[in-house]
Design goal:
Layout: H1 3-11, H2 15-28, H3 31-43, H4 46-62, H5 73-91, H6 123-141, H7 144-155, H8 160-167, H9 171-191
Length: 192
């Protein structure tokens, strides 16, 4: 849905229908895959990610008047996902359950040894798997603010400007937080 159309409908006071239509358009677009990936990168669990995405959609539908039609709809939903994640983490500790058949973004099993048929894997595959596990373990040791900025900039490949908008901080803050987060991750990786 084009911003001009949204703006025109919003001016008529029909924000609930505008948001419903924008949400339907979002589900039909490629952006929903990106939002699901963003939720998964925050929760590290596909089931929790889907619940987080559902919670964000419920919040969007409950408060359509908060949508600013001058900004992209999927960016607003991403911000709602981030806020829902933060609220959830503040309100209770999540129990993290790791599925043994969990796949990464390329469709590769994260724990192939647990589901192995007994055949030896290639050395380079073992090293790549070990490297991914080391990075994932190091990320988990970082404070939430560091994980958040690394997820947005490095894993989700958002621009600094988009990250600043999503977090509601100045551009310089994004750059300095990212530098500190990358340095902290590097320190953790070198310790192992």
């Amino acid at each position: 849905m084009h911003t001009k159309t949204i703006s025109a409908q919003r001016q008529t006071g029909n924000s609930e229908n505008v948001v419903r239509q924008a949400l339907a358009d979002l589900w039909a677009s490629d952006n929903v895959r990106k939002l699901r990936g963003f939720a998964r990168s925050l929760t590290h669990n596909p089931v929790d990610a889907d619940e987080l995405l559902q919670e964000a959609c419920a919040r969007v539908l409950a408060k359509p008047h908060l949508y600013d039609a001058s900004r992209p709809f999927h960016t607003w939903v991403g911000h709602v996902i981030l806020n829902a994640f933060r609220d959830r983490n503040r309100s209770f500790a999540w129990t993290r359950v790791t599925s043994l058949d969990l796949e990464d973004s390329e469709g590769e099993l994260l724990f192939p040894e647990a589901l192995s048929d007994g055949q030896p894997a290639h050395l380079d595959e073992l090293l790549a798997d070990e490297s991914r596990r080391n990075v994932a373990a190091a990320l988990q040791q970082l404070p939430e603010a560091h994980r958040e900025i690394l997820t947005l900039c490095d894993l989700q490949a958002l621009s600094y400007e988009d990250t600043a908008r999503k977090l509601g901080v100045p551009l310089g803050t994004v750059r300095s937080r990212l530098a500190r987060a990358r340095a902290a991750l590097l320190r953790l990786m070198q310790e192992d």
